[in-house]
Amino acid sequence: DEPTSGLDATTSELVLGALRALARKGRTVVMVLHQPRYTAFKLLDRLILLGVGGRTLFCGEPLKVVPYFASVGYQMRYGENPADFMLDVVSGLVPRDEEA
Questions:
Q1: What is the pLDDT of residue 91?
Q2: Contact present, 15 and 7 (Cβ < 8 Å)
Q3: Residue 40 contacts residue 16 (beta carbons within 8 Å)
Q4: Is the pTM here over 0.90, yes or no?
Q5: DSSP string, the chain
Q6: What CA–CA distance (Å, rounded) separates 55 from 76?
């Protein structure tokens, strides 16, 4: 579900920390996060980013998503928030570098 819906960023991270603790004890945790801060992404063990039509654009460790997108032609600008960049790529707002 959306465990952080309606919460401020600090409280959201506390909730995600509690869910991570449950996962570390062997529970499977599946959730939807809308517009999270990058620090929230770093709390996740695995990340699935879905694009238009539910197509999987990335599945893996959250800290590997930016290098993966770079390898397929989506370059993050210096100083850009990685969470915002990921959401922009998924939404189709970042142009693809055809040379990648």
A1: 87
A2: yes
A3: yes
A4: no
A5: --TTTT--HHHHHHHHHHHHHHHHTT-------SS--HHHHTT-S-EEEE-GGG-EEEEE-GGGHHHHHHHTT-PPPTT--HHHHHHHHHHT-SPP-TT-
A6: 21
Fill in the amino acid letter for 63. L
Q: Which residues lie closer than 8 Å to 16 by C-beta, 6 or more apart? A: 3, 4, 40, 43, 44
Cα-atom radius of gyration of the chain, to the nearest Å? 14
Give pLDDT < 70 ranges for the chain. Answer: 1-2, 99-100
Q: Look at the block and give the residue holding tokens 């290098």.
A: 67
Pick the closest to residue 19 from 30, 7, 34 (CA basis). Answer: 30
